[in-house]
């Protein structure tokens, strides 16, 4: 056992987090609002991919809002006093458990998005792909949120947490709980990275094999896959974070545990805030609609709807290409 002197959590990660939030949150809300509005007028943005992407945006924003409400709001004296006085009513537990719950939501989300990209591009006409693409919105949304919630039940059931004092408001947890949760987070994030890496490795080989027969519509689908792949890179950074957390918790080195906990705001912010930039940089169709919204112009509905339709000649061409796909 390493009984090192506890390290004070660094203050600079929270500063970076607040600065990043001030810049990125308005952009994220703009992208989210545009996507939500487009789903009301365009079949293209009502597809399985965009339904999953919208849920992932909600999960990112939920993680940020929960952090602001449960953690950052403690800087306000009246709220800090309220949280401390009523901490037994799952407030202290929520301050700790929400970290893992929001993490697992986004882990399952990136797996769903990656698998959907793989299936649609490599097996466009398979029964499984057809079933995925024709799944109702209600079932898609239910699966997206139900799977991580079931995984999180292991974490959410824990209630034995308390704040150390009303000034610092550090959440104190049992060592066994910290060890279990950090190990579980490492496993879940590790599996997420592994499953998504396998999907994109197979997808890369497929694209390389059919590089001379990629149609314009298939190229659009590949661009959406690249968007998700860049987002996946953030999960590798989180994997490194939880690797350290798990090591320190298993060796009961409590000092670095609290130090690493101080790094969480920046790590969590990076995981959430990379998504809108991936969308704006790599999703040209949606970016055009966002720009039109900012400039107070109407959405190009005709262009959007046309992009969701597949001509007969294009369909006939794709039937001869095993690797081509119909735009869903």
From TrEMBL:
Keywords annotated in UniProt:
Membrane, Receptor, Transmembrane, Transmembrane helix
The G-protein coupled receptors family 1 profile domain sits at 27-279
Spans through the membrane: 16-36, 57-79, 99-120, 141-163, 183-203, 224-244, 264-282
Q: Where in the cell is it found?
A: Membrane
Q: Which Gene3D superfamilies match?
A: Rhodopsin 7-helix transmembrane proteins
What's an example GO cellular component term for this entry? Answer: membrane
Q: Name the Pfam families on file.
A: 7TM_GPCR_Srv
Q: Which domain of life is it from?
A: Eukaryota
**PANTHER family xref list:** CARDIOACCELERATORY PEPTIDE RECEPTOR-RELATED, G-PROTEIN COUPLED RECEPTORS FAMILY 1 PROFILE DOMAIN-CONTAINING PROTEIN
Protein name, UniProt field: G-protein coupled receptors family 1 profile domain-containing protein
Q: What gene name does this entry carry?
A: srv-25
